[in-house]
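Students often ask what a holo structure prediction actually looks like on paper. The answer is less mysterious than it sounds. You provide the chain, you provide the ligand, and the output is a string of discrete structure tokens encoding the 3D arrangement of the protein together with 6-O-phosphono-beta-D-fructofuranose.
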Amino acid sequence: MRIGILTGGGDCPGLNAVIRAVVVGGSVLHGDETVGFLDGWRGVVEGATVPLLADECRGIISRGGTIIGSSRTNPFATDAGPDQVLATVQRLGIDALVAVGGDDTLGAADRLASLGLPVVGVPKTIDNDLPGTEVTFGFDTAVQVATEAIDRLQTTAESHHRVMVCEVMGRYVGHIAVHAGIAGGAAEILIPEVPFSIEAVCERLRLRHSGGRYFSTVVVAEGALPRDESAAGGKGPRVLAGGTDQFGHSRLGGIGMWLAQEIGINTGYEARSTVLGHIQRGGSPTAFDRVLATRFGAAALEAVHDGEFGTMVALQAGHIVRIPLSDAAGKARTVDPQLYEDVAGPYLG
Ligand code: F6P
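The corresponding structure tokens follow.
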């Protein structure tokens, strides 16, 4: 078969492991030829490709990012986009396409599948917000990076008797914040799913410090929102300048800086903020992410050879399964309230 592969949306550690699994597995097991579409859907719309050879992909499992590039191009951003995708695939003799991405990339894949595109999806995102799969690759690496950063913030917080606020990614969900916050022993974990009261946060910090703890770390997800603001008309999370991408998303950021200022003013404690940003997305994947991404890549290859188009591979109860792309697209999987209340709450540092 002649297989195309694309990686779309924000990059994440493990993308190259999927590419390797599809290219090497396809070549060794089936004699497939694989073509990489450059920069996500842009490469398919514009017909921009690169040949992917098994020998060149053998050593990339440990490499962060994606060797075929990524973008937030939406093939439905123009009227002509979907037809251009179908025309490229036909012109290049592509029998099947593997689309590796998050909600936006896979949502587009789902729509294109209903127009006849032979596509199989692979879920990725550091945010871990895709329904249908228990976890996406990239998440474990992001949590590991954020945990290490929180560990480092703890020691400097302790030396200076400060409150250190750490803003982590995750867009509209708090999976990274909750997992890294628990693992790093944060005093507070603030997530988009549960709007917070700044007064209550300051009160808890005061209580903690009056009990003999003279430093704290506060982990805040970039999409977290103070309760009074969310009650005041759904203003939504803080956004950075720069408009929206082709899927309509603004860049989130700024809550950490605001929070540190408010904590300083309201408690009198010295407070500082750190934004982890793209450090959470860059660099080498953890062993867990390498294994999961390889399993997903191998399963996508099988789905392609079985002609199971319009599906996405997913992890459920430890097993790789195939689910309809439509089950994953368009919805965000939020933090389990039980985890937040039962584990995050009582065990905060
Ligand atoms: O979806 C992954 C993610 O890293 C989000 O956590 C974050 O809000 C966004 O992408 C940042 O996007 P960009 O790389 O375009 O700034």
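The pocket of 6-O-phosphono-beta-D-fructofuranose is lined by residues 10, 102, 125-127, 169-171, 222, 251-252, 281 (CB under 6 Å).
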